[in-house]
TrEMBL record:
The lineage of its organism: Bacteria, Pseudomonadati, Pseudomonadota, Alphaproteobacteria, Sphingomonadales. It is found in: Cell inner membrane; Cell membrane; Cytoplasm. It comes from the Bacteria. It is a peripheral membrane protein. It comes from Sphingobium olei. Residues 105-285 form the AAA+ ATPase domain. The gene is ftsY. This is Signal recognition particle receptor FtsY. Residues 106-307 form the SRP54-type proteins GTP-binding domain.
Length: 312
């Protein structure tokens, strides 16, 4: 994906994650006065958990410090470097942009997530990224539960100049998806991005609806949906992990997008999610603008979260 904005994506990434790295600094403050002992190691571990990085990451950093630096003094900058290195190890295997590779076309991407997670904006941002790569894009308004969701997606389709298949509020989502795949196939569209209803409160209904969409898709193209992307709002912190837990089996999630990393001190949850679930993370959102969603570089991302001297 080309970044036409020069360095500004990197600036937005580091700027957006500053609240997270500042929070890490607050949690670590006052821990570097003496040689590293068990108590300080405990406190460092606790600080990392409080920064939402997850117990596995906290233990990993603790073990590394205990093995190499026990009884010696360390600085905050040194610790941040270690944290960045450990985060990068976890993020590197899961940082995977969404690639368009399905034959026959179109590649069908179902986008799921609870209301307010940034799903609609993410669909628009993904569409924009694919357009930048010269792919033909179509949207399908499969969230038929709310008129506002259909309206909002139409506005984005207009703005981006891409076709959209939408029905009425209360319409049959599977029917819309069926029409969309037929139209996309007939018109040589490369990628069809499908919005879906994000009701978490009723798992059975959600499962039934997604199963129906899948059945209908399978009739037209047995490989579809090619991707099931779960959109998560980073500001919800640990709750984002619960959502993965629920959706991963129910919806057969194939990858994640995490939004709103700019609006929160809880960005560490991206690392906890990567370490616990090991699902591909396709992109991150660091703002409301269309260019604020990008695949991420694991090293930059790790530095931005850890707030290493290089990043600050
Ligand atoms: N700061 C910030 N805001 C974001 C980001 N992504 C989305 N938003 C905002 O979050 C709000 C909700 O986004 P939507 O895309 O409408 O989310 P949705 O999940 O479709 O929500 P509903 O339409 O309410 O179901 C909007 O105001 C977006 O502009 C992001 O990465 N950063």
């Amino acid at each position: 994906m080309t970044d036409t904005s020069g360095n500004s994506w990197r600036d937005r990434l580091f700027g957006g994650l500053k609240r997270t790295s500042d929070r890490l600094g607050e949690n670590l403050s006052g821990l570097f006065k003496a040689a590293l002992d068990d108590q300080t190691l405990d406190e460092i571990e606790e600080a990392l958990i409080m920064t939402d990085l997850g117990p596995a990451m906290a233990a990993r950093v603790r073990d590394r410090l205990a093995a190499g630096r026990y009884n010696r003094e360390i600085t905050e900058d040194y610790l941040r470097e270690i944290i960045a290195e450990e985060i990068e190890k976890v993020l590197a295997p899961v940082a995977k942009p969404l690639e368009i590779e399905a034959f026959p076309r179109p590649q069908v991407i179902l986008v799921i997530g609870v209301n307010g997670s940034g799903k609609t904006t993410t669909i628009a941002k993904l569409a924009n990224n694919f357009l930048e790569q010269d792919y033909g894009v179509m949207l399908a308004a499969g969230d038929t539960f709310r008129a506002a969701a259909i309206g909002q997606l139409k506005v984005w389709a207009d703005r981006l100049g891409v076709p959209i298949v939408a029905g009425k509020e209360g319409g049959d989502a599977a029917g819309i998806v069926f029409d969309a795949v037929k139209q996309a196939t007939a018109t040589g569209i490369d990628v069809l991005i499908v919005d879906t209803a994000g009701r978490l409160q009723n798992k059975t209904e959600l499962m039934d609806e997604l199963a129906k969409v899948r059945r209908v898709l399978g009739r037209l193209n047995p490989a579809a949906p090619h991707d099931v992307v779960l959109v998560l709002d980073a500001t919800t912190g640990q709750n984002a992990l619960n959502q993965i837990e629920v959706f991963k089996e129910t919806a057969q999630v194939t990858g994640l997008v995490m939004t709103k990393l700019d609006g929160t001190a809880r960005g560490g949850v991206l690392v906890a999610a990567a370490e616990k679930y090991r699902l591909p993370i396709h992109a991150i959102g660091v703002g409301e603008k269309i260019e604020d969603l990008r695949p991420f570089d694991p090293a930059d991302m790790a530095k931005a979260i850890a707030g290493t001297a290089y990043a600050r």
